[in-house]
Amino acid sequence: MVPFLILLFVVLVLGVLLCEWRRDASSVRSRDLIFLCVSGAALTLFAALRGSSVGIDYQMYEEYFRSMREGGAAFLLSGDNQYRVEWGYSLLNYLVSLVSGDVRVFMAVAAVLIMGLTCVFIAKYSPSWWLSVYVFLSFGFFNNSLCFIRQSIATAFFLFAIPFLKEKKLLPYLVVVVLAASFHKALFIMVVLYFIAHIPVNWKSLTAYGVLTALILIFSWPIFNFITQFVYQYYATESGLYYMQGRDWQTAFVPVVYMLVIVGLRGYLLRRDPKNVVLVNFSIYAGLLYIMTCKHFLFQRFGMLFFTAAILVLPEFLASLDADREQLAALESEPAVRASKKSGQRKKEALERREQRTALRNRKYYYRYSVMGLVFIGLVYYVWILLQDRTILLPYVTFFQQ
């Protein structure tokens, strides 16, 4: 557990010192870049160096890689290839197997791909790079990438579809979704998302979401039995029924609180950008799916797809709370003069500037308190995830120690 906490501590300290402490507009981007490169490299090495005992699915991925190594190109289209439909994942295994038969090389490539895509996405679209990385780690998304490799690669690709979704660009959105689904076919569900993600968030839509959630929970078994007649037959087997067991309420607590905060304070996000309605809906889908997880663990697999978007949603939300730092600095640098000594118009202007300066200072404090709240929640949530250790990540050891 200690190595994971050290990793979180390093990300937090670097983020605060490089990206928050005495932030200056002229140097903020270079400091952000240093943070993103260092933290991204640390996360990649942490994942690439892990031993085979770290991660519940490690052995499964190792067996598949060996099958690809032994089967060669013919195995790609063979009926024995269990991931033949997920051609992106199959091809990745095949290409790596041409270079090395060591599964550790494949794990390193997967780590580079997941973290590389995530860092590029953060650099391109996040208003706060360090907060995105902190959420990615503390909310358990990085830990998931050590186990659910296929889904994590698929999700990393899908993140790039979100800007196209916000802009309602169907063709590039579908291209990214298909690419993501080539690593995990569950991502095909995101095709439907294109047609509902812009639904306005109001009492009507929230009521509809609530009713739909209740109906799914009530009729979950009939729906499950019907779907598994055609696809995902594994989940209907005795071993697959594990995924139909429920999780405790603590599993849903943070995603649900996240949903309530974003929905309740969505006005800030929407004033920043009306197209952020997509991000608000993402938070709703994540929260509701995690509520359903309390009945069936299977829903968590889909909930994670939407919950991972928190690496963009939360920094975007906090940025909507923050003050315009350049404007505040300009107002604070003005010489202090007594409004009473000015003429009527100048007196009014001085008073307005004073009120504006106070409002901006308050927003700066709202932002700082919110960041501290997020850091605290992330720390507690991360410790809880590690203590649960549902994906068998502890103890962390490197392959040098095995």
Write a compact overview of the structure shown.
With 402 residues, the chain is mostly helical. The chain has helices at 2-20, 28-48, 58-71, 73-76, 87-99, 103-125, 129-138, 141-145, 149-158, 161-166, 170-181, 190-193, 203-218, 220-227, 249-264, 266-272, 277-293, 298-307, 310-321, 325-332, 344-388. The two termini are 18 Å apart.
Fold and architecture overview:
The structure is a single chain. With 402 residues, the protein is mainly α. The chain is built from 21 helices and no strands. It has helices at residues 2-20, 28-48, 58-71, 73-76, 87-99, 103-125, 129-138, 141-145, 149-158, 161-166, 170-181, 190-193, 203-218, 220-227, 249-264, 266-272, 277-293, 298-307, 310-321, 325-332, 344-388. Helix 1 (2-20) runs antiparallel to helix 2 (28-48), helix 1 packs antiparallel against helix 7 (129-138) and helix 17 packs antiparallel against helix 18.
